Amino acid sequence: MATDDTGRVLLVRAVEPTSKRYDAIVIGSGMSGLSSAAILAKEGKRVVVLEQHYRPGGYLHRFYRKGGLAFDVGFHYLGGIERHQVLGKYLQYLGVRDRVRLLPLDPEGYDDIHFPEQRFVIPAGEGRYRERLLEAFPRERPAIERYFRDLKHITEGFGFYQIRVSEELHHVDRWMSMPLQDYLAALTQDVRLRAVLTAQNPLYGVEPRRTPVGLHALVTDSFMQNPYAIDGGGDALAQIMVARVRELGGEVRLKTRVSEILVDDERAVRGVRTARGDELLASTVVSCAHPKVTVGLLPEGVLRPGYRRRVLEMEDGPGTLSLFVTTRADLSHYGGRNIYNYKTSDINAIYDNVEGKPQFVFVTVPTAREGIGKSGLHHVIGLALLGWKHVRAWEDTASGKRGEAYEAFKQQQAEELLGLVTEVVPELAGNIERIEAATPLTNRDFAGSVGGAAYGIHHSVEQSGRYGLRPRTRVGGLFLTGQSVLMPGVCGVTISAFHTCSQILGDEYLMRRVHEACDD
């Protein structure tokens, strides 16, 4: 018996499996999947996007509660989206940049960092950020000046970040194989400055001792420009992208799970089969599903054993413990900034989590910038990192059927995290209407992320650069995209989509098309 989102029973007719032909099939409707579909459709390909969930967007989407209150799952803010910046240019080509209603964060301080020994507020813009660091650490001028020179040098060497074809491979290998912790230790002996420079680390989710300097530079640079939220959150961006794909002649099908990638005798894709039994045929398949999920969709023996083993044995990134709080307290003054509350200045410790208690929380209040509407309720989102090892005992259970021990664990984790949230949002004390929590198991079950990994494959030095996954696979016509390829985040996965589609359409051709769109 099937029901809709309100619990009403739907009448389902038995339908015979069908077959349909396309130029390209995209598995998954995250930002990378929708971007890939829009690129290929814009360039004349007949495209279909297949999404297993009932809402598009992957980690962009929101879930809704009574009264219309909306909670973001994974998207909170972005950078590099102005017209002359990297994400802005790619979205301009896609034809959606002017359709997104941007909400600027406070340029004087968009990320408010709390450490046990210090507090630092990061302003927008490289110049403002540099000057504030110099004010806080006047004796560290040489290190600070060197840091910003290095960031510029590093980002200039990554072709797709600069929207050009050529990648300076030696440059990329050097900076993607150097741990951030080692780089900062050589830069300065001031541990307080090193903590501040590493404070936005949860944006990419790799412990500093294993973070590639190149990854840190690219992510930091994109946010350091002018950060924005989106009116309607990531959900709005997802809906805009879906509309654009359809406008370009593509299809987006929800509640359509791919059960198998079809491969011919020449080890080239010929389409996919859905869980319903339909066969959709195409000579190109782009998967933005987790790479391990993608490998599992292929027939046995298609991949070389070494490549298959390499993908399946790659380390996944951390999951998240998410807290969704509803309150009637006046939180309107929190709209312009996000808060990072650390219980330690050693950011490696938030990944180790030896005591089993959250050592960090990211706090944001979307309703403070979007408006609280008729309900008069604000909602607060608190996010902490939580490894799979903490929920492994329940990995064989289903949502809503995990048992009392799991519920007790989740409640204990939620209470710990709420304590960290209330430290920086004291108005919540005694003013909470409702609390919900989600663990990495939720990520796995609703986003299809192996090990509940919020960032996909771990972007450590051991798995980045020359050791990272490439868009082109060993199966003809099968390509990977998404946050496990290149880097996570809206900017990162959009770049990943263009990188992947350049393998299909041609590097020089696609980059020329992007520049033409931006010059119009």
Could you characterize the architecture of this molecule?
The chain is an alpha/beta fold. It is built from 17 helices and 22 strands. It has helices at 31-42, 86-94, 126-136, 141-156, 169-176, 180-187, 191-197, 213-224, 233-247, 291-296, 305-312, 349-352, 367-370, 404-424, 440-447, 489-505, 507-519, and strands spanning 2-3, 9-10, 19-21, 24-27, 47-50, 62-65, 69-72, 102-104, 111-114, 119-122, 228-230, 251-253, 258-263, 269-274, 279-281, 284-287, 319-327, 338-342, 360-364, 378-386, 432-438, 478-480. It has a 7-stranded mixed beta sheet. A hairpin with a 5-residue loop joins β13 (258-263) and β14. α1 (31-42) runs parallel beside α16, α2 crosses α17 (507-519) and α16 (489-505) crosses α17. The chain starts with a strand and ends with a helix. 50% of the residues are buried. Mean pLDDT is 91; it is low at 1-15.
> Mind summarizing the main beta sheet?
7 strands, mixed
Quick one: how many beta strands? 22
- List low-confidence stretches: 1-15
Q: Strand share of the residues?
A: 15-25%
Read across the widest sheet, the strand sequence of neighbours is 10-9-18-19-20-17-21
Shape: globular
Q: What is the overall number of helices?
A: 17
Radius of gyration: 22 Å
Structural class: alpha/beta
Share of helical residues = 25-40%
**Cα end-to-end separation:** 52 Å
Q: Whole-number average pLDDT? A: 91
